[in-house]
Specification:
Length: about 150
């Protein structure tokens, strides 16, 4: 059985992100598109996707005109948590782990857009770095990254 409070978590995390952005004067008011860091499930059960969806709702309730868009996909299924820092760095440098979805490639969809990449947790920054690189390669004019939490690097 699922704990009924689990359904509140994405909303609470998104509200916390929004409040922190306002308090710290992070300029999120002119974001056009929020893109979640993908895993293999690009549905509402993914943490990054559900947090992104909630953040979009909050921002739009506060007069912003932003959409959440799944623009990236993860291309490898390997679990990388067991790898050392050096092994992960090598894996990410030799493999294209994230790519822009085919239906948007070459469409200039991101040109002139401010894009915010959102993830639930950042550990070493490999995923975020590769996703930002791919969004930049696809023409995003202005990119920012926002994560709910960070973990210690071992």
């Amino acid at each position: 059985n699922k704990d009924p409070l689990e359904n509140c978590v994405p909303d609470l995390l998104a509200r916390s992100m929004y409040i922190k952005a306002k308090k710290e004067n992070f300029n999120i008011s002119d974001v056009d598109i929020i893109v979640p860091v993908p895993n293999f499930r690009l549905d509402d059960s993914s943490c990054a996707v559900s947090i992104s969806n909630e953040l979009v709702k909050i921002m739009n309730e506060n007069g912003m005109n932003v959409i959440q868009q799944n623009l990236l996909r993860k291309t490898v299924s390997a679990k990388l948590k067991h790898l050392s820092h050096e092994e992960k760095e090598e894996f990410y440098s030799k493999n294209k782990v994230y790519e822009f979805l085919e239906k948007y490639q070459g469409s200039r969809y991101l040109y002139g857009k401010k894009v915010m990449l959102v993830d639930d947790v950042i550990t070493q920054g490999y995923a975020a770095g590769r996703c930002l690189e791919e969004l930049n390669n696809q023409g995003a004019e202005d990119l920012c990254f926002y994560s709910v939490a960070t973990t210690k690097r071992r």
